[in-house]
Design brief:
This protein is an all-alpha fold and 173 residues long. The chain has a domain of 95 residues. It is 38% helix and 2% strand. The longest helix has 12 residues. This is Transposase. It holds the Pfam family TniQ. It comes from Vibrio anguillarum (Listonella anguillarum).
Length: 173
């Protein structure tokens, strides 16, 4: 994809891909998956996305945006990593860089956890206003999506839930 956007600080990959679609004028979710990943079967996930080598390959090497930097700076991997044994953690990074097929959520114990993932994306209205003023657009911050986080750490205000679920009726949307 030509002109793939550079991620903002702590921006979710989920948000980055959505911005790429907005910037390119792509309205079809399947077409966006084709353009970004070269595969319309990729399932967008908020916390531990895969195919990050495809995304890092969109950038010139001078930016030093690698699959590993995307994993550590733009996903929830650093939240889970301290609680995962080393072999599983390394496998998780490989799956995120390439293809996971849902394995990472199983191996990390997320699928069976009593700590459930938020069903809706969360945001801070004040942060959104600041993003709009600074960048001319809004984006999803990964810290807002951590289970149990209900307040903005920057503004000490409650996070709001966005009314549209990130997991859609059709897996390609």
């Amino acid at each position: 994809m030509l002109g793939f956007p550079v991620p903002y600080p702590n921006e979710l990959i989920y948000s980055l891909v959505a911005r790429a679609g907005v910037h390119s004028g792509t309205i079809s979710p399947k077409q966006l998956l084709d353009e970004v990943y070269g595969d319309r079967k990729v399932i967008a996930t908020v916390d531990l996305p895969s195919h990050l080598a495809q995304i890092s390959g969109q950038y010139p090497s001078v930016l030093n945006i690698t699959a590993a930097s995307l994993i550590y700076q733009h996903t929830l991997f650093p939240i889970y990593a301290p609680f995962i044994e080393e072999g599983k953690r390394q496998a998780g990074m490989r799956w995120m860089a390439n293809q996971s097929k849902g394995l990472i959520h199983l191996v990390f114990g997320i699928a069976a956890s009593i700590v459930k993932q938020p069903k809706l994306l969360r945001y801070c209205p004040q942060c959104f206003d600041e993003q709009l003023a600074q960048y001319g657009e809004r984006y999803w911050i990964r810290g807002w999506q951590v289970s149990g986080v209900t307040w903005c750490p920057k503004h000490s205000t409650p996070l709001y839930e966005f009314s549209i679920q990130p997991r859609y009726e059709h897996r390609h949307e």
